[in-house]
Design goal:
It is a single chain. This protein is α/β, with parallel strands linked by helices and 199 residues long. The chain folds into two domains: 116 residues, Rossmann fold (3-Layer(aba) Sandwich); 76 residues, Rossmann fold (3-Layer(aba) Sandwich). Helix content is 56%, strand content 13%. The chain contains nine helices and five strands; from the N terminus they run βαβααααββαααβα. Helix 2 crosses helix 5. The longest helix is centred in the middle third of the chain and has 29 residues. It is globular and about 50 Å long. It starts with a strand and ends with a helix. The model has no long low-confidence stretch (mean pLDDT 94).
Length: 199
């Protein structure tokens, strides 16, 4: 079984690529953002630690962590973000490694994927068998983000500026998927790459 990381800048079309893989291969796919939400649920060690740092006023009426209140606290204190990432990121890794072991034991899965924009920065290159980079030109990504999410140029600039450069993404990856044109072309490249991995 192969453990593969999928990363790329905002608007590169990672979701479309993952949707194709999910439909065509025996695999498990985890989105790091969703896992991060999972590990922050009440009753987890991560949740207890976050409440200790953030205070109980960050909870909503149901007892869950209120994303908006948490974001406000982080915005007011830059060092807080580092402390929170230092709790959440290791918890996400532990969760994924547990799922990976379970998938190996099941013997039903050939490919195990984790997707996140920050995989390279968070050191996943040392954990995965391969890191895949979904690439599309900035102009293409900008157009997609305006059409699909209604983002303004300012918002797009802000997000792109915070993400890795094209060079850094390529340097940290083993396989580059060009997803700036037809999705079918990107999917063909994936099929070819996976066939070669099996060979």
């Amino acid at each position: 079984m192969k453990f593969i990381g999928i990363t790329g800048g905002v608007g590169a079309g990672k979701s479309s690529i993952l949707s194709y893989i999910r439909d065509h291969y025996p695999c498990e796919i985890y989105l790091a953002d969703e896992v991060a939400h999972e590990v922050k649920k009440p009753g987890t060690a991560c949740f207890q630690e976050l409440i200790r740092i953030l205070g109980e006023d960050v909870l909503d009426e149901t007892g869950d962590i209120d994303k908006k209140r948490m974001a406000e606290k982080i915005f007011a204190d830059e060092q807080l973000l580092e402390r929170i990432n230092g709790i959440v990121h290791p918890a996400v890794k532990d969760y994924l490694l547990e799922k990976l072991e379970a998938a190996k034991r099941s013997g039903k899965v050939k490919l195990f994927f984790v997707e996140a924009a920050l995989l390279i920065e968070c050191g996943y290159g040392e954990l995965v068998d391969e890191m895949w980079y979904v690439h599309a030109r900035k102009s293409v990504r900008r157009k997609r983000l305006k059409e699909s999410r209604g983002y303004s140029d300012e918002k797009i600039d802000q997000i792109m500026k915070a993400q890795l450069s094209e060079e850094a993404f390529r340097k940290g990856s083993d396989f580059v998927i060009d997803n700036g044109g037809e999705l079918a072309d990107a999917c063909s490249a994936i099929d070819e790459h996976l066939n070669n991995m099996d060979a």
